[in-house]
């Protein structure tokens, strides 16, 4: 049965955030809010967590997982990024964008796109997500909480708790999230390619 954490959207309770972070370090899979949608998240190197996310979302091995990072210093450890791309991404973050970039050796192999050796990264503009990332001290391996055969992500914490009670370990709720996932920009070829138009304004990359 999943634990349910009701977190203040503007002043997250530090003790609650610390409890959630500790559970992630211990292998928990959590549903948590971001500036676009709720996401499923687990510790970076958790094979069990990766397998559970794939199972819940019915994903194949070509799916790009996302490393949700607290800041640029953290993001730079996991992806290769040149100056031009750095400036373009810096101008758009934090925000509702996911960027696909060549991965460094810090990224576990099972997270990489099998052919491209790329990974998704993002820096969310969300108080609760940022508090959790700060407490955790490393990126959250994440994927949008969009269930198979459904058109939109789940938006309410209580509904996630009800429907995923036996497949996630915790639900962090700070109010409704949106239904529009991030805009995805692929920089792996050097130029910006818009892969998905979502909640972040794509016009700056056109």
Report on the structure:
Helices cover 26% and strands 22% of the residues. With 206 residues, the chain is α/β, with parallel strands linked by helices. A 10-stranded mixed sheet has the order 1-8-2-3-7-4-6-5-9-10, with helices on both faces. The radius of gyration is 16 Å and the shape is globular.
Assembly state: single chain
- Secondary structural class: alpha/beta
Strand content: 15-25%
Tell me how many strands there are. 10
Please tell me how large the radius of gyration is. Answer: 16 Å
Helix content: 25-40%
Question: Major sheet: order of its strands?
Answer: 1-8-2-3-7-4-6-5-9-10
How can the largest sheet be summarized? 10 strands, mixed
The helix/strand order is EHEEHEHHEEHEHEEE
The overall average pLDDT, rounded, is 94
**Number of alpha- plus pi-helical segments:** 6
Low-pLDDT residue spans: none
Q: What does the overall shape look like?
A: globular
N→C terminal distance: 45 Å
Pfam families: Sua5_yciO_yrdC (PF01300)
Domain YrdC-like: 14-200
InterPro entries: DHBP_synth_RibB-like_a/b_dom, Sua5-like_dom, SUA5_domain
Protein name: Threonylcarbamoyl-AMP synthase
């Amino acid at each position: 049965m999943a634990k349910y954490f009701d977190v203040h959207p503007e002043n997250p309770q530090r003790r609650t955030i610390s409890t959630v972070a500790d559970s992630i370090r211990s292998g928990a899979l959590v549903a948590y809010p971001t500036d676009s949608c709720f996401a499923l998240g687990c510790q970076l190197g958790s094979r069990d967590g990766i397998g559970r996310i794939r199972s819940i979302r019915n994903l194949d091995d070509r799916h790009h997982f996302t490393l949700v990072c607290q800041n640029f210093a953290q993001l730079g450890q996991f992806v290769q990024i040149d100056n031009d791309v750095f400036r373009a991404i810096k101008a758009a973050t934090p925000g509702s964008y996911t960027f696909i970039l060549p991965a460094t050796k810090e990224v576990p192999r099972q997270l990489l796109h099998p052919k491209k050796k790329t990974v998704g990264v993002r820096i969310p503009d969300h108080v609760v997500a940022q508090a959790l990332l700060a407490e955790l001290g490393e990126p959250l391996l994440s994927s949008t909480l969009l269930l198979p055969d459904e058109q939109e992500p789940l938006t309410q914490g209580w509904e996630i708790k009800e429907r995923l009670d036996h497949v996630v370990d915790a639900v962090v709720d700070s109010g409704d999230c949106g239904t529009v996932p991030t805009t995805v920009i692929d920089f792996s070829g050097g130029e910006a390619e818009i892969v998905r138009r979502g909640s972040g304004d794509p016009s700056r990359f056109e």
